[in-house]
């Protein structure tokens, strides 16, 4: 018997045999024929008993396997009398109950071999007694155990029948099977002064490597082993073609049945799955799973420990699973929990078959223990074929095919519906909340803006009241202030509206073109503070310092007499210029937001009389004046804006009763414009071209023109009707009605096709121009019906005490078209200065009546009107314009002569007693309540010539220079005689531009001009001076040329432009410039002037000859 048990362990075979016998007994009882005998068999009770026995046996099998795998041994018992010599057919001792297998031995050979006890050999009786007591405690219900207890101790154990009714199933505990081990803290590992922690027996039993990793043994310690832990020996190598048997599969397989081939296994599984049987008999399924082994799979990956899960249930008796369980038994608690999650997941998704990779499952254990949750991607990482599994999981409705699918589907439907309702409610709530937030923010902003508007309104009202108070004080003390020491704060600001400022190119440069204001220091009592819109470098400051130091040298004619006047003028740049670079703010607004500049100005004017002279007024001028506590020599900003518009100027001219071009003002609708313009065209059929001017634009930017009469289809018929009715009857409405109707029908189409804006960059089409025109308002007026038209600019000053003065008069020249001024010639020579002064004084009185104070300029136009031929005395004309150049125009049937540069007279040879007929007409076209560029350059001209401009006679007189030698001779010979004054003319422009100028620095440019003889002679008081605006872009400049006669100064101006253009331009890089057009316009003027001179001399000679030929009476 001992020899048989040494070869194998019979316990596994015994348990399998018991399991099969019970299954056969259950089948026999189910087929037992009771009806024939007339008896009744309670099969339900038998089935219950058999199931209870099967459950107990299964539990014992699992416990046995666990103990075998964990190598747990029981206490040996050597009392042979406790065991019965008889055994059952299953090779089990008759005196032992099945519960004695709760702690089975490791193997049968060890069960019958004597074990070495820890007790000494001198006490064999004590050892047997202890073994008997342990056995009795394990099975107190055994009959022999009860008899032994009664015989030895006199105790009769009670019968407990309830314990026979049910079998207590041992509860499995989930979790890790590894106890916590002692770990040395990190601080103790690095600090040698800490006392080492004692090493316990439990820690030492884990091995030296474990103690080194946990820090109990220092890593640098020298370790010497008495016995080496690893004994080297030859490892057996197996052939890959040889099948490898799993050790745990041998004792569980039935030896009497041969194993099927892998092909048979595959076919049987396919047949079973093809039938669609989700449930099979447990016994057949267990036997098949235990008997089937795939050698090919074992050969494929014997170290992966993979196992298959069918229909979400793990076959715990499968060899693959048992091998996996045996290999990872130390962490089986966590693995068991993870397997439960996997089974549940697979059942939920009705996955029929999944092969799990054991190594991947164990690698996932740490993450699973942390989150205790299994996701789809985690399962895919453990599956052998994740692509197929993912495809099945992604099938629509796959989740609802598994367990509790209908319940899950119902929950999903309910959740989706609730989510939809909640989402809909949330969207409505969010929309309402957003709307309420928008309303709340809008209301807060409205309240904030209302509060700010109220504060600004109160502030501006306070500034206006203070301005009026200071203006009254200035008017009352003006006679004293203008003759005493004073400081003038010049701010050349362009305070136009924001839309106008945004469309002005190089706006800051435009605000810095009036550097001639510095020449107010010509009065010895005046100091100037000039606010500059650009940061001036040292080079520009030195340039203007040298120009202003020429005052004494000009008077004496000696360059050595220059004096430094830097203490009398200051150039200040507001610091906000560098902050608000893209806001198109006017210079006054920049100054208002520049506290450092304000503080410096306050320090400069402290204790002095001072007043402020602005450019085009802005309401921020009042705020700056309030900060500085100085008056403003100018009107209220609202008045300046009102009367500077084209419509506002028409009202001023109308009240002054001065001639204006036929036109209409305050146009704000297209229908109104068509109706009134049709009436104008009908009333004035002699007008070919009509102009459209916006109210708030300047410099020709808001101007368009159209030759309406030449494009009318009914033109001939209208002219015929006009001549038929006559001049007097044509003015009546009944005569004009048919013509007015036809003209109004054609006018809109003519304007759309033939109207042309002047600034085509800003207004490329008539439609865009018309939209802006009607939004701002504007005027439509006639263009002079003449071939030669001259524009004039007159600068005036209304002093605070009410005195009106004319400061400058000049004729404009136009390099970029007839509607854009490029410069002026000063003094003007186109209109009788007395007539011009009379017109301007009437306009000045009209402005004075409207509380306009300060500087303003008037734009006028003069031309030959052939319809009005008023006879004039030729002697008066010749006397008034003697020694002037002439310009000739031509009219149909008339010989025209120009007296002056552009003042016209006509001689009709067909008329008896031929006379000169003055046909010049003057229209007032514009009013600008601001300090003009022409006035600034006029101040520079007077500063450099020490001259006097007499606007009553339109002359610029300068004192004649006498050299020092002549002065000494005259002092010795006779008393000094005042030198005779000489006349000067000036050509000035601030609008010169050339892109190539930016390639040359200012000092190089001045040296280049000096090399070509372009400069100023202080002795002759003639020459050229440049106005430099800024040092960064350097593409714009101003130029002032002074000479003895108008023709000569025009030629010098054109020559300077030609030389500069040739020096800074290459043949392939001409640049964008207006130099060429300016030269062309000046050449036209020079040609006509020369021709007029010759014609004028011929007329004078013929007159003298006629007087000589007359006999003396």
Structural descriptors:
1113 residues; alpha+beta; nine-stranded antiparallel β-sheet; five-stranded antiparallel β-sheet; 42 helices; 28 strands; 46% helix; disordered N terminus
Count every beta strand, where a strand is a DSSP E run of 2 or more residues.
28
Percentage of residues in helical conformation: 40-55%
Strand content: 5-15%
What structural class results from the helix and strand content?
A: alpha+beta
Mean pLDDT: 77
Through-space gap between termini: 191 Å
Main sheet: strand order: 21-16-13-14-15-25-28-27-26
Major pleated sheet? 9 strands, antiparallel
In one word, what is the shape? Answer: elongated
Q: What is the CA-atom radius of gyration, in angstroms?
A: 60 Å
Contiguous runs where pLDDT drops below 50 for at least 5 residues:
1-8, 70-124, 162-167, 245-301, 869-918, 970-979
Number of helices: 42
């Amino acid at each position: 018997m001992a020899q048989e048990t040494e070869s194998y362990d019979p316990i596994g075979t015994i348990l399998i045999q018991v399991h099969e016998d019970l299954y056969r007994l259950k089948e026999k009882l189910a087929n037992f024929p009771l009806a024939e005998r007339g008896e009744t068999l309670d099969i339900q009770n038998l089935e219950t008993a058999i199931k209870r026995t099967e459950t107990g046996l299964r539990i014992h099998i699992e416990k046995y396997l666990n103990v075998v795998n964990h190598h747990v041994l029981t206490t040996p018992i050597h009392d042979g009398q406790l065991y019965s010599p008889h055994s059952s057919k299953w090779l089990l001792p008759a005196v032992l109950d099945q519960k004695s297998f709760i702690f089975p031995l490791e193997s049968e050979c060890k069960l019958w071999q004597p074990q070495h006890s820890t007790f000494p050999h001198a006490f064999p009786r004590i050892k047997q007694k202890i073994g008997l007591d342990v056995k009795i405690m394990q099975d107190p219900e055994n009959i022999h155990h009860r008899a032994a207890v009664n015989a030895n101790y006199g105790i009769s154990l009670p019968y407990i029948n309830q314990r026979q009714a049910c079998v207590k199933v041992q509860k499995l505990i989930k979790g890790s099977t590894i106890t916590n081990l002692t770990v040395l803290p990190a601080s103790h590992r690095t600090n040698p002064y800490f006392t080492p922690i004692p090493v316990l027996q439990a820690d030492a039993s884990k091995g030296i490597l474990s103690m080194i990793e946990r820090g109990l043994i220092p890593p640098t310690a020298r370790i010497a082993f008495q016995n080496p832990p690893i004994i080297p020996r030859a490892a057996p190598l197996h052939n890959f073609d040889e099948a490898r048997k799993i050790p745990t599969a041998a004792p569980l397989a039935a030896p009497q049945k041969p194993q099927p081939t892998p092909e048979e296994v595959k076919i049987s599984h396919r047949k079973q799955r093809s039938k669609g049987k989700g449930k099979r008999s447990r016994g057949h399924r267990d036997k098949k799973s235990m008997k089937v082994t795939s050698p090919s799979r074992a050969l494929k990956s014997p170290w992966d420990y993979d196992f298959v899960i069918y229909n979400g249930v793990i076959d715990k008796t499968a060899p693959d699973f048992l091998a996996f369980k045996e290999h990872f038994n130390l962490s089986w608690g966590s693995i068991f929990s993870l397997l439960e999650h996997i089974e549940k997941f697979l059942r939920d998704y009705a996955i029929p078959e999944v092969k799990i990779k054991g190594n991947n499952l164990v690698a996932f254990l740490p993450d699973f223990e942390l989150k205790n949750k299994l996701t789809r991607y985690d399962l895919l990482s453990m599956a052998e074929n994740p692509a197929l599994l993912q495809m099945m999981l992604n099938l629509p409705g796959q989740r609802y095919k598994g367990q509790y699918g209908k319940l899950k589907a119902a929950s999903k439907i309910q959740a989706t519906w609730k989510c939809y309702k909640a989402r809909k409610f949330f969207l409505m709530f969010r929309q309402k909340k957003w709307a309420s937030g928008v309303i709340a923010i809008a209301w807060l902003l409205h309240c904030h803006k209302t509060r700010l508007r109220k504060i600004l309104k109160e502030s501006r009202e306070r500034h206006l009241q203070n301005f009026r108070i200071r203006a009254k004080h200035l008017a009352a003390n003006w006679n004293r202030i203008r003759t005493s020491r004073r400081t003038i704060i010049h701010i050349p600001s362009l305070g136009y509206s924001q839309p106008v400022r945004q469309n002005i190119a190089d706006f800051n440069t435009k605000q810095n073109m009036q550097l001639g204001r510095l020449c107010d220091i010509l009065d010895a009592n005046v100091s100037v503070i000039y606010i500059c819109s650009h940061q001036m470098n040292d080079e520009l400051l030195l340039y203007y310092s040298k120009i202003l130091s020429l005052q004494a040298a000009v008077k004496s004619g000696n360059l050595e007499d220059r004096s430094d006047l830097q203490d009398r003028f200051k150039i200040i740049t507001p610091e906000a210029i560098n902050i608000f670079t893209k806001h198109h703010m006017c210079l006054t607004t920049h100054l208002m937001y520049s506290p450092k500049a304000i503080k410096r100005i306050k320090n400069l004017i402290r204790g002095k009389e001072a007043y402020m002279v602005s450019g085009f007024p802005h309401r921020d001028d009042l705020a700056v004046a309030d900060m500085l506590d100085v008056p403003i020599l100018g009107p209220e900003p609202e008045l300046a804006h009102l009367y500077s518009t084209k419509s506002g100027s028409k009202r001023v001219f109308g009240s002054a009763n001065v001639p204006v071009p036929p036109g209409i003002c305050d146009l704000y609708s297209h229908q109104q414009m068509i109706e009134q313009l049709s009436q104008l065209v009908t009333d004035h059929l002699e007008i070919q071209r009509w102009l459209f001017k916006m109210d708030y634009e300047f410099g020709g930017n808001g101007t368009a023109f159209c030759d309406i009469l030449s494009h009318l289809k009914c033109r001939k018929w209208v002219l015929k009707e006009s001549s038929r009715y006559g001049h007097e009857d044509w003015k009546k409405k009944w005569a004009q009605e048919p013509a007015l109707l036809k003209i109004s029908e054609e006018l809109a189409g003519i304007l759309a096709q033939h109207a042309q804006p002047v600034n085509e960059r800003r207004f490329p089409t008539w439609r865009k121009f018309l939209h802006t025109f009607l939004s701002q308002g504007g005027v439509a007026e006639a263009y002079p019906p003449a071939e030669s038209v001259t524009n004039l600019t007159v600068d005036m000053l209304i002093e605070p005490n009410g005195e009106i003065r004319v400061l400058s008069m000049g004729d404009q020249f136009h390099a970029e078209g007839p509607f854009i001024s490029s410069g002026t010639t000063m003094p003007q020579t186109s209109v009788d200065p007395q007539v011009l002064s009379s017109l301007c004084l009437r306009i000045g009185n009209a402005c004075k009546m409207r509380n306009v104070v300060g500087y303003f300029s008037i734009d006028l136009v003069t031309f030959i009107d052939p319809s009005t031929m008023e006879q004039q005395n030729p002697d008066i004309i010749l006397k008034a314009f003697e020694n002037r150049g002439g310009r000739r125009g031509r009219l149909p049937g008339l010989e025209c002569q120009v007296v002056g540069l552009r003042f016209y007279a006509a001689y009709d040879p067909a008329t008896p007693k031929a006379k000169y007929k003055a046909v010049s007409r003057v229209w007032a076209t514009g009013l600008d309540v601001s300090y003009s560029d022409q006035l600034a350059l006029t101040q520079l001209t007077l500063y450099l010539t020490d001259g006097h401009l007499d606007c009553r006679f339109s002359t610029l007189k300068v004192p004649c220079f006498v050299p020092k030698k002549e002065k000494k001779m005259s002092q010795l010979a006779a008393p000094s005689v005042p030198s005779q004054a000489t006349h000067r003319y000036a050509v000035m422009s601030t609008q010169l531009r050339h892109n190539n100028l930016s390639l040359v620095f200012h000092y190089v440019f001045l040296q280049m001009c000096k090399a070509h003889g372009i400069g100023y002679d202080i002795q002759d008081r003639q020459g050229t001076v440049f106005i430099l605006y800024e040092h960064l872009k350097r593409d714009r400049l101003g130029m002032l040329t002074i000479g003895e006669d108008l023709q000569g100064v025009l030629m010098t101006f054109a020559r300077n432009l030609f030389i500069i253009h040739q020096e800074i331009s290459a043949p392939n890089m001409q640049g964008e410039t207006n130099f060429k057009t300016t030269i062309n316009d000046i050449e036209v003027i020079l040609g006509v002037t020369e021709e007029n001179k010759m014609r004028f001399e011929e007329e004078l000679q013929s007159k003298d000859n006629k007087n000589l030929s007359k006999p003396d009476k």
